[in-house]
Design goal:
By secondary structure, the protein is α/β, with parallel strands linked by helices. It has 5 helices and 6 strands.
Length: 151
């Protein structure tokens, strides 16, 4: 089954929540980023995955940049699993992602929504204003964000 999931590069065979769960847990980390991008694409966002932006020799890498109707969402993907301590690493990753979002604003002049998407549900839902969304709830998060009902 693992080899079959790696071959699903366009994720078109994902038809149910259990398919999504299997694909997200079995995919290598690069495909996890592509899966997150795919979910945004299914919600009519234009998506760039694993993009590096440079300004005056400073570089920042973005896992997913999703844009629709003048809104930009910058997504940091974390495919951590297991029982190792993740909370402090997650908080550190969020602070770094907020810095990348500030860099993006300087680069483009546009505000962006910072989001962290995780493989599994974490013990925190937000940190310093940044939502932490498990991939299995990403579709409903996007709907809530677009409807203004998130938060």
């Amino acid at each position: 089954m693992r080899a079959q999931i790696k071959e699903i590069c366009d994720f078109s065979q994902i038809k149910s929540l259990s398919d999504l769960e299997r694909a997200s847990t079995e995919a290598i980390w690069q495909n996890f980023e592509r899966l997150v991008g795919h979910i945004f694409e299914q919600n009519d966002f234009s998506v760039e995955v694993n993009i590096v932006r440079t300004l005056q020799r400073e570089r920042r890498q973005y896992d997913v940049i999703a844009c629709r109707a003048g809104r930009t969402v910058l997504v940091e993907c974390k495919r951590w699993s297991g029982h190792r301590p993740r909370l402090s690493a997650l908080k550190r990753a969020i602070k770094q992602h907020k810095e990348r979002c500030a860099f993006y604003k300087t680069l483009t002049g546009r505000e962006a929504v910072a989001v962290v998407v995780t493989l599994i549900e974490e013990e925190i839902k937000t940190y310093e204003g940044v939502p932490v969304v498990p991939v299995l709830k990403l579709n409903s998060f996007i709907a809530e964000m677009e409807n203004g009902t998130y938060g």
